[in-house]
Design a protein that fits this description.
heterodimer; A: about 260 residues; mainly alpha; about 85% helix; about 0% strand; globular; B: about 250 residues; Rossmann fold; 2 domains; 6-stranded mixed beta sheet; 4-stranded antiparallel beta sheet; about 30% helix; binds adenosine-5'-diphosphate
């Protein structure tokens, strides 16, 4: 039938909407669990370590190359209307407002949403989640809350580190390849960069971190049976987290920088 | 006391429990037998509220488990899962002492560790396994750690899902004796799933056979051998032919 592909699109759209609804419900459950004791401090520290600290190399490398490439592009673009001197300030604004949080968020999504989903999914299929319940421990509080909190706190810090390294990458390329004077580059950066450029990016980072951990936990907890179930949960977690980050980024940018 | 009344559960088109009626008196040891895949594990999880019922009622000490305060019930409960279900991010002793390290039963660290090592001894494990991780243990050892975890907080109701599967005959004997002891000593109500007839005879006060989604037969273990039920007879004698089809 000629309508079959259309019906297929309709079905997957409905499935997508249902999925968003379920994640929304999971979000409310997480918030409820967040507000009620007990709070598992040790799980929180562990999560902070694995999500935050261990993501530093990935985020740093992403940022340094991005900052470098950004400097080259802005130089090439700027030279078309003799505005090469905007390189330092545009690199700084581009990194702090957009590329730092978005690329950092996507890298952390790849690293963290996948590992959270795989870990919790495996716990689910090996009955460890059931075992937690029989040991009077709420999986939402023991597994989800520490991870979500840790990611919400650590991703903005990662973004801040990434911003600095990205600007430094631009500086290296600017002074090494494009002939900028080192002192002038730094002065230009600090003269034009505003506090809100940085804080808006950090807020984005916090939202992205929250989404990454929430989505990872959701897909892990709802993993299907067997190794295949865990594999599917992991894939869905990374894809969903990435799409949500990009969508949230657009909404936040609208909110922060228009009107 | 645990009472199941007309319990139904299906997964999609697959009807697993189709009207289970069973009573487990307080302080007694009930053993559930039945072929694999007949829904024995599902039955235990229904009682725990880990799986939602499609129909029927489950009462624990007279209270409906779907309405009752599950936390209060679980505080005096222990379970050994079929696959062990140990937390692989925690060393063995923290698995055993899980309840004693957090929540309302929280103890000082060294005391919790001491209790964990004692419980490990009871299931035939030496103190040097305490600091290993579950992945470093054999299947049988994991099973015993799971058992130690189930009894760590001296529960009043205990479920054992295939406690001796995967153990050698001697260790099976040790575990059978241990379960019997726990029931007698602590006066706990126990529900054990097993295929192992030597376990049944060692552990059970009463036996129930689950087949076709219902309890085919239940009665005291002494009456099991000449109960006259063809299903029970085939099962306990391990015969290939009889009313239970070998392909299912
Ligand atoms: N969560 C689940 N989803 C779908 N089917 C399930 C689920 N849990 C158990 N089943 C099915 O229910 C049946 C009974 O399983 P189970 O209780 O584990 O058997 P056993 O008696 O060997 O313990 C099996 O056919 C199994 O495939
Ligand atoms: Mg089973």
């Amino acid at each position: 039938m000629i309508l079959t592909p259309v019906a297929g699109i309709g079905r997957s759209t409905l499935a997508l909407l249902a999925g968003i609804g379920k994640i929304g419900l999971y979000f409310l459950q997480t918030m409820a669990a967040l507000l009620r004791p007990p709070f598992y401090l040790r799980e929180f520290w562990n999560a902070l370590w694995t999500i935050g600290y261990n993501s530093l190399p990935v985020v740093g490398l992403t940022a340094v190359f991005t900052g470098g490439a950004l400097a080259l592009q802005i130089y090439a673009g700027g030279s078309r209307f003799n505005a090469e001197q905007v390189v330092p300030s545009i690199v700084a604004i581009g990194m702090t407002r957009e590329l730092g949080p978005v690329l950092g968020g996507l890298m952390v999504a790849a690293r963290v949403a996948s590992s959270i989903a795989a870990e919790i999914g495996t716990m689910k299929v090996t009955e460890q989640i059931d075992a937690l319940v029989t040991l009077s421990t709420d999986p939402m509080k023991y597994l989800t809350v520490p991870r979500v909190l840790a990611a919400t706190i650590s991703v903005p810090i990662l973004v801040a580190v990434g911003d600095s390294i990205g600007i430094f990458g631009g500086y290296l390329v600017g002074t090494g390849r494009l002939g900028f004077n080192a002192a002038a580059y730094l002065k230009n950066t600090s003269d034009f960069l505003e506090v809100w450029d940085v804080t808006s990016g950090l807020i984005k980072g916090a939202v992205f971190g929250f989404l990454i951990a929430l989505v990872g936990c959701y897909f892990g907890m709802n993993s299907g049976r067997g190794a295949q179930g865990v594999g599917k949960a992991t894939k869905s977690a990374v894809v969903t987290a990435s799409v949500l980050i990009l969508a949230a980024n657009y909404l936040l940018t609208e909110l922060f920088f228009t009107g | 006391m645990i009472q199941l009344e007309n319990v139904h559960k299906a997964f999609g088109p697959k009807r697993v429990l189709q009207g289970v009626n069973l009573t487990i008196p307080k302080g007694e040891s009930m053993v559930i037998i039945g072929g694999s895949g007949t829904g024995k594990s599902v039955l235990l999880k229904c009682i725990l509220g880990l799986i939602k019922l499609d129909g029927g009622k489950i009462l624990v000490n007279g209270e409906d488990v779907t309405h009752a305060d599950r936390d209060a019930f679980l505080a005096h409960f222990g379970m050994l899962f079929q696959g062990g279900a140990l937390f692989d991010s925690l060393p063995v002793w923290q698995n055993v002492a899980f309840r004693l390290l957090r929540g309302s039963l929280k103890r000082p660290l060294d005391e919790a560790r001491e209790i964990a090592i004692q419980k490990l001894k009871r299931v035939g494990l030496t103190p040097d396994v305490a600091d290993l991780f579950p992945a470093e243990l054999s299947g049988g050892m994991q099973k015993r750690v799971g058992l130690a975890r189930a009894i760590a907080a001296d529960p009043q109701i205990i479920f054992f899902d295939e406690p001796t599967t995967g153990l050698d005959p001697i260790m099976s004997g040790v575990i059978n004796d241990l379960i019997r002891e726990i029931v007698v000593e602590m006066g706990a109500t126990a529900m054990t799933i097993t295929h192992d007839m030597s376990s049944v005879r060692a552990i059970a006060d009463r036996v129930a056979m689950l087949h076709g989604g219902v309890i085919q037969w239940t009665g005291p273990v002494a009456q099991m051998d000449d109960c006259g039920d063809p299903y029970v007879d085939q099962f306990i004698n391990g015969r290939a032919d009889g009313p239970i089809a070998s392909v299912r």
